[in-house]
Amino acid sequence: MTGGPESEGVSLDTSVPHIARVYDYWLGGKDNFTADRAVAERVIATLPEIRLSVRAQRAFLGRAVHYLVAEAGVRQFLDIGTGLPSASNTHEVAQRAAPECRVVYVDNDPIVLLHARSLLTSDPAGETAYVDADLRDLGAILARATEVLDFGRPVAVMLLGVLHCIADEDEPATLVARLMEAVPPGSYLAISHPASDVATEQMATSMRAYNDQAPVPLTARSHAEVSRFFDGLDLVEPGVVQLHRWRAGTGAPGTGAPGTARDLPNYGGLARKP
Ligand SMILES: C[S@@+](CC[C@H](N)C(=O)[O-])C[C@H]1O[C@@H](n2cnc3c(N)ncnc32)[C@H](O)[C@@H]1O
Description:
The protein is α/β, with parallel strands linked by helices. It has helices spanning 19-26, 34-46, 50-70, 90-97, 110-114, 138-145, 172-182, 200-211, 223-228, and strands at residues 76-80, 102-107, 127-132, 156-160, 188-194, 234-235, 241-242, 266-272. Helix 2 runs antiparallel to helix 8 and helix 3 (50-70) packs parallel to helix 4 (90-97).
């Protein structure tokens, strides 16, 4: 697996915005640069709910992981599009409920690689690993993941806030289907994804504000499009919903969602492979 912050040869292009650093800014983090902050503020100006939405996304991660460990009995996670380490990363939530959980993190952003050490703080009973790879390079991801995860047992594939970084021409649904083919029955798929059909005009304006400035464009998708990623799987109740409403009020301490009365343009869902 890849090394930690002192890894040699990691170079950051700070002149253009990167989603990991922009997301870090929205979450109130410090690992971002002028170009990231500029585009993050442009999006806030058009969609003030973005900060609440990204916090709700982290809370969804917490509730989904806690459900997977405490209710579904899953002990293995493949978390692709990890993001910068933040409060309650996947292995922390999982190992709080079952210390033997094993987590493989995958991200393609050099700044996440630089901070990977914070993700490698596994409970000795379990294991965490970090793979520096692109979601579109599934061969590399699966080859490395099998060094840590047992693909004969259920694996939760976590694609939280990452599929919108994959353009339609790169066939995100095919990538999801290939990932779910690689894991056995009883495995799970978790997705969170910005919505194109909630606060529709504001979302379209904010996506343009981001995409005008960033080298990797983002694609918000509709409820129907996000639901199609789960084809062939059994959705856990309540299905694909605005993610702050997904099993709100459940989960470990600190994973609560913001109030459910308002709309947030961000879908979440979890499903089991039959
Ligand atoms: C918005 S953050 C989401 C972080 C975390 N999963 C969460 O839900 O809080 C998206 C992450 O996906 C990563 N990412 C974007 N495109 C990717 C790709 N093609 N392959 C791997 N990681 C990618 C980014 O570098 C970033 O760290």
